[in-house]
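2024-03-11 09:14:02 DEBUG pipeline.ingest accepted 1 chain
2024-03-11 09:14:02 DEBUG pipeline.ingest length=230
2024-03-11 09:14:03 DEBUG pipeline.predict start
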Amino acid sequence: MTDVAANYRKIIDRISEAAAKCGRNAREIRLLAAAKTQTVEAIGAAVDAGVRLIGENYVQEAKSKREEVSRQVEWHMIGHLQRNKAKTSVGLFDVIETLDNTTLARELDKEGRKQNIKVRALIEVNLAGEASKSGTTKNKVSELLKAVGELSYVSIEGLLTIPPAGEDCEEARPYFRELRELRDKLQGLKLPNVDLKELSMGMTHDYPIAVEEGATIVRIGTALFGPRRT
């Protein structure tokens, strides 16, 4: 059985090392447990170890797990969110990290209004333009932010990206740096409902690089839970 607590400590140590390397405070970085296909018991072990953010890829899977994991943790949507799932996702997730179009933003706003919930979200940016991945393009982010600025029940708290898969974790660095630079540029727009304090980037194979480039949330699955269950 995977020792989730031991894995958690190793990850926290590596985050601290990466933060120290670039002069950052390790407390600025939060570990999100990417819990797709993981059991409630494994998630509970992660929470016991110190995890406070749980990420899920599917609405139904998150719904069933959240009912069983009765802990004070935040649940984040980190998979592609379809418009027809907006109603269920509002109130189920504390943060939706994969907002990538105005149609979905307006649907979330409509559901937020109905449920009287301010929907917290990050914008997913597909920096490499990979057809296999979701996310808006770099040149459309400001347009999406301006659209959200006109809504009453959606707030944008940051950006997310997933770089192309590569053999060498250093290959991800330019994408992480590009997202940080994009965030810094967009902050200058000073739009309502927009405070880009979060950079969700970095996974098991490259999270120390992401920390060095400014990540505030790293999404860790395999390094925490062991190989994904099928």
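2024-03-11 09:14:41 DEBUG pipeline.report The first strand starts at residue 30 and ends at 34.
2024-03-11 09:14:41 DEBUG pipeline.predict end
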